[in-house]
Structures are given as structure tokens and as C-alpha cells.
């Protein structure tokens, strides 16, 4: 977030208000800790104010929805308006959604006057608008930045191959499935996952190196979805290591799909 005139005026006002607040607080152990308290109060107030101008309509277990939720946590924008919708009840086709997203899809995200319904667009927007807020998710190094962008957009191919299997199993009754189609889809996803295993072997822990970046924000929900569908940790040990190393990250843990906590997964991917 740049220091334009509006932001400078806000910070001046916030600092003045928190200084007044601090007068009524018992004296802290030192002048330094006193000022740190005031500054943290200003930052918290600023974050809460910004988040109140945001609305997210989302579905539990949807990787695109989860990306935006992780992003908001990473940027310390908790307290935004949100509404959990049911896919089973077709609530994503409600007028409330259609008013913001004529495609009748979720996530549907509004930040101030800006509507961003594509998860990648929302993530980029939040990172660029709130650069100094929360965790920095685009690295400075050109090498790391190039790798991050490359991996981010490769996730589209992974999702495509994942969705082909999920939709085929969902739409085609078991007795009507063709062995050739099942095998073709299985081989395509297996080859794709092998690529990602190779990518992750070359990095320390995250997709673009040591640091958690936008690439991980968009990639992790799809990896978690794969393991939710029974992907074998034994067959894919590097992906399993990546999954286990990040599943307890604060932003991910705080936004874990609620339906996943209440219901078991499936074994759709057990033979992949």
C-alpha cells in the first residue's frame, strides 16, 4: 500500500487516536514498549477498518475459495464480511451471488468498489494493494519471482487434469465408464503429479524457494484436495512432505474447510 495523501492522513489520525488511548493505559515497563503498543494498536485498527469493506461469498472445500481465504489471512485482513454457501442447495446460483457474479459461481469477492471473482485476480489484487500489510508474498529476487509466476500458472494444468477425473466419476455412472477413458485420465494426472514431485525436490520447502509465496497460496488448496480424495502419500512422498509441512501454517489452519473437519474424504485418487 503506497503512502498517498489519503494514507498519510489516515496514519496521522490513527497515531493521534492511539496516543490518546495510551494515556489511559497503565504505564508500561519502558518508553520503547509503550510506543510499540501504540503502533500495534494503530495497525490492528487499520486492518480491521480495511477488512470491514470486504465481502467474500464462498463454498467449503472449493480450492479457489480457499485461496482467497488464505490470502486474506496472510495479509492480516481478518474480520471481513463472509457468507458460507451450500453447493448442494445451489446457493451459488442465488440472486445474491448473481448480483456480484453473473456467472453464478463462487468465490465472489468484493473489496470496496472492486469485484474480483477469479481467485488469481483477487490474490494479485490483495498483494498489490496491501504490500506493507501482513506477509510479503512476491519475492524481490528476479529468479525467485520468475519461478513463482511460472509455478503459479502451471497450477492451471494440474487443476485441469484433476477436474477431468473428478467430473468423469461424478457425471458418468460406474457401470457406464469406459476403461480406456479411466486409464487415460489416470495416466495424465500421474504424469502431472510426477512433474510437481520433481519441482518440489529442487526447492527447500515451498514452490519458489524457502519462502511461502503466491505460488503456494494457489497451489496448496489443490494439493490438499488431492489428499482429501485419497492420494497416496507412499506413491507421492514429496507432495506429501510439502502438504504436511504447510497444513499447520497459521493462514491455512485458520481457513481449513469446515466440511472437511466433519466428514470423511474419499478414495477416488487412491490408485493414482
General description of the model:
The protein has 272 residues and is of the alpha+beta class. Helices cover 57% and strands 7% of the residues. It is built from eleven helices and four strands; from the N terminus they run ααβαβαββααααααα. It has helices at residues 5-23, 31-51, 63-74, 95-98, 119-129, 142-171, 179-201, 214-228, 237-246, 250-254, 258-262; strands spanning 54-59, 81-85, 108-111, 114-116. A four-stranded mixed β-sheet has the order 2-1-3-4, with helices on one face. Strand 3 and strand 4 form a beta hairpin. Helix 7 crosses helix 9. It is globular. The model is unreliable at 1-31 and 36-45 (pLDDT under 50).
Topology (elements, then pairings):
Blueprint: H1 5-23, H2 31-51, E1 54-59, H3 63-74, E2 81-85, H4 95-98, E3 108-111, E4 114-116, H5 119-129, H6 142-171, H7 179-201, H8 214-228, H9 237-246, H10 250-254, H11 258-262
Parallel strand pairs: 1-2
Antiparallel strand pairs: 1-3, 3-4
Helix pairs in contact: 1-2, 3-5, 3-8, 6-7, 6-8, 7-9, 8-9
- Number of helical segments with 4 or more residues: 11
Strand content: 5-15%
- Radius of gyration, in angstroms, nearest whole number: 22 Å
Structural class: alpha+beta
Based on the model shown, name its key terms.
single chain; 272 residues; alpha+beta; 4-stranded mixed beta sheet; 11 helices; globular; disordered N terminus
Concise description?
The protein is an alpha+beta fold and 272 residues long.
